[in-house]
Amino acid sequence: TVSEPIMLTSEEALNLFEATLEEAPVAVNDQFDKIYQHVKKHLFRNGTTDEKEKSRLEAVDKLKVWKKNKTLPQDYLEDLLRIIQNDGLTGEEIRFINKLTPKNVSHLLERIPEEYLNRVVNKMNKVEEGDETLILAEQFN
What we know:
Layout: H1 10-16, H2 31-43, H3 50-69, H4 74-85, H5 91-99, H6 107-111, H7 114-129
GO molecular function, one term: helicase activity
Protein name: Helicase domain-containing protein
Keywords: ATP-binding, Helicase, Hydrolase, Nucleotide-binding
């Protein structure tokens, strides 16, 4: 049976592939491709639950209303929307947004400052610049 993939640090994963120059390759068995395809399919899936997704969508809707009403700076809200849509905020930050009212919306800039958003957006841009994903796979007996 195929179980759920586990996440490893880069160091842990690379240590699994350590080999000597003299080591001969070994053919994989019939199950390898089935397992590999399963892992590849689930490797980048979003693991959010329905409740978390509902909360995230609620925050997105609220931010879009604020953007339309020009409640906060447009650039700030655009960056925040992009970050939320890329799952870049914690559940706690999402809940904070959802609890805000028009009267206390200015607290958002204090809780999630623009400098923080800029750092996150810069990191997202660096990740998006990479156009390839390397998946190392090996069959263990």
